[in-house]
Design goal:
Layout lengths: L1 H15 L2 E4 L4 H14 L3 E7 L5 H14 L2 E6 L6 H4 L5 H20 L4 E2 L12 H8 L5 H5 L3 H10 L25 H16 L5 E6 L2 E6 L4 H7 L2 H11 L3 E4 L16
Length: 268
């Protein structure tokens, strides 16, 4: 079944003939870039949007991964932070982010002779609340993984099968997702959260989030790593580091990390 889906993906790209990949550097868009490059070679390009909501380390990862694949890679600037509809952080914040992204990529694609803009939305994404998907759809973007029904687990399976070394890379959505809906987003707040997460990664934890709620940092780790964190971490030093970043309180979420956790409020 997985081989059939891979064949379908290759057919989609062959029919496109030329395409521009909206490339975040995550496991989904990296798989899309790999398959597209295998089919189209120099008739496909990967473009990453740089903005304050993207960790610099993620941009560097995107560059390295694109180079490993062999696909041409470019970086463009997006300006969603100039849009109050985005920075006010409504429940459909992602709609305004993806609108900005695709309003930037679509003209670039047409200018370069690429009739299609392709993203890494997968089949599982369609089951979550993802207003950004609507923005991309309105602008004519294609989502081959979703079209073929490739799940997140299958994305990782295919990535491993195709020899991509980052097949198990943890999901890393934009830093704006660390704030509860309704809390104003600023560049300073994004930088604060980003630095806090980098600090935790340097301690050896990778699948994590630092949720910013006013002046409180709420750390989410995998449930099985919570005990290790409490036992091995110099907690007074960590608190001091976070307070140096501007947080007043530092807490640990005992439920642990779960993707899409902030969307729970939408179903309550």
């Amino acid at each position: 079944m997985l081989e059939q889906k891979l064949k379908q993906l290759k057919t989609i790209f062959a029919e496109m003939e030329r395409a521009l990949i909206a490339y975040s550097g995550g496991v989904d868009s990296t798989l899309v870039a790999k398959i597209a490059y295998d089919v189209l070679s120099d008739r496909v390009i990967a473009v990453t949007a740089e903005s304050p909501s993207l960790l610099p380390e993620e941009l560097e990862d995107a560059r390295i991964q694109a180079a490993t694949i062999g696909i041409t890679h470019e970086v463009v600037q997006t300006h969603e932070m100039d849009n109050p509809n985005y920075t006010s952080n409504p429940v459909n914040r992602c709609y305004f982010c993806k609108s900005e992204l695709h309003d930037t990529l679509k003209p670039l694609a047409l200018e370069r002779g690429y009739p299609y803009v392709v993203d890494g939305v997968n089949g599982d994404d369609l089951r979550d609340y993802r207003p950004g998907i609507q923005a991309a759809k309105e602008r004519g973007a294609r989502s081959p993984l979703a079209e073929v029904g490739v799940t997140k687990a299958e994305v990782r399976q295919l990535s491993k099968q195709l020899g991509l070394p980052w097949w198990d890379k943890p999901a890393q959505p934009c830093l704006s997702s660390r704030f509860p809906y309704g809390e104003m987003i600023t560049v300073a707040k994004l930088q604060r959260v980003g630095r806090a997460e980098i600090y935790l990664r340097k301690l050896g934890f990778s699948n994590l989030r630092v949720r910013s709620e006013g002046d409180t940092a709420r750390i989410e780790l995998l449930p099985e790593e919570i005990k290790e964190f409490v036992v091995t971490t110099d907690l007074p030093k960590l608190v001091a580091e976070f307070q140096e970043l501007g947080f007043v309180y530092v807490t640990l979420d005992l439920e642990g990390y779960r993707s899409g956790k902030l969307n729970q409020v939408l179903s309550q």
